[in-house]
Amino acid sequence: VKADITKISLGLILTKLFVRLSN
Fold first, then answer.
1. How far is it, in rounded angstroms, from Cα 1 to Cα 19?
2. CA-based diameter of the chain, in Å?
3. Cα(20)–Cα(4) distance, rounded to whole angstroms?
4. What is the pTM of this model?
């Protein structure tokens, strides 16, 4: 379960960074 949470958190951080770079 912890692994899933970490994966989701990492995904959200990556998406945030991607949005910042794209914008």
1. 27
2. 33
3. 24
4. 0.54
- Residue 17's CB is within 10 A of a number of other CB atoms, namely 10
Sequential pLDDT tens for the chain (23 residues): 789 999 999 999 999 999 999 98
Dist. CA 3–CA 11, nearest whole Å: 12
Reported as half-sphere exposure (CB side, CA atoms, 13 A), residue 10 has a value of 6
Which residue shows structure tokens 């914008």? Answer: 23
Q: Which two tokens stand for residue 5?
A: 């949470």
